[in-house]
Design goal:
By secondary structure, this protein is mainly α. The chain is 70% helix and 0% strand. Helix 1 runs antiparallel to helix 6.
Amino acid sequence: MLLSISYKNIMISYVSYTFIFIMIGITSLNYQYKDRLKIKLAFLLFSMSMMASFRGYDVGNDTRSYYNFFKQMVYSNTDFDPRIEIGYRYFNIFIAFFSENFTWVLFFSSLFLFVVLYKFYVKYSNNYIMCGIFFWLIGFITIISATRQAVAIGFVYLAIIFLVERKRILFFSFVIIAASFHLSAMIFLVMLPLSNIKLTMRKVTILISVVTAITLFSSIFRNIIIIFLGPYYANYIGTSSGILAVLFNSLMGLLYIIIDEFQNKNTSDDVRKSHIYNISKWSTLIYSALALASYNISIIGRLSYYFIPGLVLYISYVTKRKKILNFISIVFLFAYNIMVLWLRPEWNSFFPFSFIQF
């Protein structure tokens, strides 16, 4: 009985928030009024930011751990933890100088991420509202649950803006800053050479084939994981993300690439010739490849988080002005999330959602 009540609370909580965001979105599909769309995107992202900022300390995978780290630093005057990078340590020290309330750490880290995402999507997307909805359905829970990594992702997407503008030194600098919050952000340096290489279906096939082959011999990844994530995470080798998550996340990105290829044959869109389009397409492919590789090394799934905002941008390109495809995408993503909440409740640490009690 208690289990069924728990399931009910989880479903009601998730469905309620999703319904609100989708209702805002479906009333905003008139592409003629860009200023209104920007305001609604800002509202969507600001709402998510407030949820992330004022969530309970037991909401999210690592929130309680970061709370304990902050309190340890405040009360015992020590900020040492071998897993915590220097940037995040100094960020906590800065917050602790003004307040002993850990919620301010969540507030500023969440606000920073969502301000960057707003700037990123408004600057490069032509399908604003769908970016907000797709981010909620694909990336919100996973990224926000990783508090320290969420800050790193914010810096990574500031770096992307400089990469698009061909300011490579600034791109490199901001990726390094991101790595000071989470060392795994260094993986995004791969975008520096890839962004200038046009992605074709032949390259997609080769990369996925290579990743599939390597995944069958997961020990090859061991040293790479230790370099990017530290020896603490080496014990994740041999642990699977689960076949449901692997299949969905790897096939999702590939599906949109295939749809885009069919559309490419029938349309000539200047967006598809742009630098940011190529970056977003590579982000989608890398996301799918990392999801596939996580089959035997679950922690690799964490590396895929860096490519979620780029994946969302790419989907917004593919689905622009295609209401049926937007609708199918929303239903498809929503159904998957419901399935995960029902079949794999142990993966969920965010719902039923609760705000912090002041």
